[in-house]
Amino acid sequence: MSPKSAGLAVKWGHKTPLVYKDGLPSWKKSGHRTVPTMAHIAKGNVVIVDLRDAKSVEKGYIPRAYTVPFGELEDYEDAFPAAYGAPIYLYSDKDEEVSAATRIVKDWGYKNVNGFYGALDAWISSGRTLQQGPALTASDDTPIFWEKILGDGEISITDFTKSLHSELIFVVDARTPEEYESGHFPGSVSIPLELMKSRLSEIPKDKFIVVHCKTGGRGEIGYRLLKEEGYAVKFLNAECECDPSGEYNIW
Question: Which DSSP string corresponds to 2-33?
């Protein structure tokens, strides 16, 4: 389970929950498929792209989907969201199109691209109705808009990166020491999540604290722990890669 789920399991009385610390990003990176909930597709802050031809789309498509015919996909790169961390779900009635489109969009630099296999059947099986008529379209002049919606306690990637090289924040890296040594944000301090409560003396009360991990799960647990202890704190709910050289990428 995720670190967040493990924390809840401990609160509910479970003694030895196991944590898959690399989480969903590692699962996807290994080439495994993921299956979204229909509630996430219906109301989540996501981008949905229908790869079928226009005539097929008009007969019925998942509401909120943009139509980008697979055969024309490579002409639509500039119409995709400006944010490379946007969660993008691609679907079609042909699995080979979904797989190929997923590779293409990842090659453009998008970090959270998901092939939604069997999307139409899953949508109908959940009791939902396909929308008929023309779907949303995108172009270079009217690109697909997506903006991250921050939850309670989250700091935006923009605010985090602006503050990182200043004296405004104290960054706590909640990952393992091994992860920290493999690369970390400049100036961040390694305090693994499981040791955080016993090392509160190392975290200043006169600074604004930001907790982070690799994907946001451990960061959120650390945020809640420090908030209960009276700290001014937020967490970075984003995926990141840090290089030993000090360079990093966040999405």
Answer: -HHHHHHHHHTT-S-----TTHHHHHHHTT--
CATH code (residue 69):
3.40.250.10
Counting the structural domains of the chain, the total is 2
Q: Classify residue 172: in a domain, yes or no.
A: yes
64-114 confidence digits (pLDDT tens) = 999 999 999 999 999 999 999 999 999 999 999 999 999 999 999 999 999
CA end-to-end span of the chain, whole Å? 22
Question: 208-212 and 233-235: which strand pairing?
Answer: parallel
* The pTM of the whole model exceeds 0.85: no
Residues annotated as catalytic are 213
Q: What is the pLDDT of residue 214?
A: 93
Q: Are residues 64 and 120 in the same domain?
A: yes
Which domain does 163 fall in, by range?
Answer: 157-250
